[in-house]
Design brief:
Largest sheet: 5 strands, parallel
Number of domains: 2
CATH topology of the largest domain: Rossmann fold
Number of strands: 9
Helix content: 40-55%
CATH architecture of the largest domain: 3-Layer(aba) Sandwich
Distance between the termini: 46 Å
Shape: elongated
Structural class: alpha/beta
Strand content: 15-25%
Strand order of the largest sheet: 2-3-1-4-5
Radius of gyration: 22 Å
């Protein structure tokens, strides 16, 4: 039997992950009272119970001590075999998600969302440290999260401990706050000033051909790819879970989109890491 405990930051995607695991054939139980968890695992360990895959969701609740859950998990691991899936996101993204859903954070005091998020992150630090799988959903689309969960829990493929997010953006709209590495490609000629290309983006072949028609673009992408391929295994070795590579031009429509796509194509299917591509400021 495969037993997975699903936990993490409130707003990090735990409920979504539980629904995906349920669709994948897991028997799912959510937020079981602490005194019942051990009994639940005892029942599942009995022979011929008919259940082959189980996902147990646990999160922070105002009326339940997560310290008790952490101690229980430590004790249960002496007897039972199970995996921990931990879902998280950046503070700013969690704050945005809570504001969009108008939900109240279980640990917020007097409605202070950010204080609740920070208290929860500190509280969950110990269980995050022992989790087999840590997935940062800050830049993940729902379908990308499903792909990652299917890879781990359906296809039983290797876990991508590092998620690399390649992003294009426009400097006039601001530098992405969650970017780890930022690169400026405004040194290249701007297709915006070409009438036939102005209303197109780096997703169009005509723009791609124009941008990549300059030798400097090839030198840049060659050097950038070489550096990223050097950094990735070292980030993995140091336990980093997410790497956001942001490539910017003036408006985030032409040059940055083209070169972000080029970098994505060079990195995909080349290592034990997940890879996503997002164009933050393209429209339409």
């Amino acid at each position: 039997m495969r037993f997975v405990i699903v936990t993490g930051m409130s707003g990090g995607g735990k409920s979504t992950a539980m629904k995906m695991l349920e669709d994948a054939g897991f028997y799912c139980a959510d937020n079981m009272p602490v005194p019942l968890i051990e009994k639940f695992m005892e029942l599942l360990a009995m022979p011929d119970n008919g259940i082959q895959k189980v996902a147990l969701g646990l999160d922070v609740r105002a009326d339940q001590s997560f310290e008790d859950i952490t101690r229980l998990i430590t004790r249960l691991r002496q007897t039972y075999t199970f995996e921990i899936l931990f879902l998280e996101a950046s503070d700013n993204v969690l704050l945005k998600r809570y504001k969009e859903t108008r939900r109240i954070h279980p640990l917020s005091v007097d409605g202070d969302l950010m204080s609740g998020i920070r208290r929860e992150r500190a509280l969950l630090e110990s269980i995050r440290a022992v989790a087999e799988y840590v997935i940062d959903t800050t830049n993940l689309l729902t379908r990308e999260l499903k792909t990652e969960l299917d890879r781990i829990f359906v296809s039983n493929q290797a876990y991508n401990s590092l998620m690399v997010n390649v992003m294009s953006f426009g400097f006039k709209h601001g530098i992405p706050q969650d970017a780890d590495l930022v690169f400026d490609v405004r040194f290249l000629p701007n297709p915006f000033y070409i009438d036939d290309l102005k209303l197109k983006t780096g997703l169009d072949k005509e723009v791609q051909d124009y941008v990549m028609g300059y030798p400097e673009a090839h030198v840049f992408i060659d050097k950038l790819t070489d550096m990223i391929e050097f950094l990735i295994p070292n980030y993995i070795k140091e336990g980093k879970y997410q790497l956001v590579i942001a490539i910017g031009c003036t408006g985030g429509q032409h040059r940055s989109v083209t070169l972000a796509g080029e970098l994505y194509n060079r990195l995909k299917d080349k290592g034990d890491y997940g890879l996503t591509l997002r164009h933050r400021d393209t429209h339409g």
